[in-house]
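Researcher: Please predict.
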Amino acid sequence: MAGKFEVYEDKAGKYRFRLKAGNGEIVAVGEAYETKAACIKGTEAVQRAAAEAVLKDLTA
C-alpha cells in the first residue's frame, strides 16, 4: 500500500499535514500553515524535494 499525506486542522485552527507510510505509521509531519491551500502546497513541496533527495549520513 502506498503512503499518503493527511491534511488536518489543529487545536489552534492552523492547518498541518502528516505523511503516513503504507502501514499507517506517521513518518513525517509538517509545520503549521495559516490556510489549507498553503498546507497543500507544503505537501507538494515535500513530494518534489523527496523525489530528488539523497541520503547524507552524518554519523560517519
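Model: The longest helix spans residues 36-52.
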